[in-house]
From TrEMBL:
GO biological process terms on file: tRNA splicing, via endonucleolytic cleavage and ligation
Protein family per UniProt: Belongs to the KptA/TPT1 family.
SUPFAM superfamilies associated with the record: ADP-ribosylation
Keyword tags: NAD, Transferase
Protein name: Probable RNA 2'-phosphotransferase
GO MF annotations, alphabetized: NAD+ poly-ADP-ribosyltransferase activity; tRNA 2'-phosphotransferase activity
EC number: 2.7.1.-
Class in the EC hierarchy, top level: transferase
Source organism (scientific name): Niabella ginsenosidivorans
């Protein structure tokens, strides 16, 4: 399968399943699910052509596991990262003692002042692996990695959720829980 085409479809799916379903006039349910047949039909009408087999391939091979099917494989959703209001249904869990967040060096002063904020997304995204945080930080410039004292936050009453693709989610990380990696 053409990798460039798969990447383009994946980016398109991120747009419509995380941020702007109205782009192709689809509705996400309260848990972020979209009907696959409707998604394919409206995407094809919009000029982004794929079929169910291609969609299954993209979901299965996406290195970040950004998307998930329901049990009957008739609905799809983004695993996290939504800017539209959805309830993903993840149960609160105790996180590892330390998690990581990657950003650009230019964002460090602001983060040290106000902490990590979800801004236009539903959650702050954290990872278990420094390498993942570096990869995320590189998307925005020269990377800077924060160590997040997640165990301490949890003990202080903050809630954490683990997405289907292994990303830790929380509402905010106050600056007091951040250290330089």
């Amino acid at each position: 399968m053409d990798q460039e085409k798969c990447i383009n479809i994946s980016k398109f799916l991120s747009l419509v399943l995380r941020h702007k379903p109205e782009t192709i006039d689809i509705q996400l349910d309260e848990n972020g699910w979209a009907d696959i047949d409707t998604l394919i039909e409206r995407s094809n009408n919009y000029g982004v052509a794929f079929n169910k087999e291609m969609l299954q391939y993209i979901v299965a091979t996406n290195s970040k596991k950004r998307f998930a099917f329901n049990d009957t494989i008739d609905k799809i959703r983004a695993s996290q990262g939504h800017s539209v209001n959805v309830e993903l249904g993840y149960a609160s869990q105790k996180p590892p003692e330390i998690l990581y967040h990657g950003t650009s060096e230019r964002s460090v002063p602001s983060i040290l002042n106000s902490g990590l904020e979800k801004r236009n997304r539903q959650h702050v995204h954290l990872s278990c692996a420094v390498e993942t945080a570096v990869s995320v930080g590189q998307r925005h410039g020269k990377p800077f990695i924060f160590k997040v004292l997640a165990g301490q936050m949890y003990n202080d009453g903050f809630l954490f959720y683990l997405s289907d693709n292994g990303v830790w989610l929380t509402d905010k990380v106050p600056a007091a829980y951040l250290e330089e990696e």
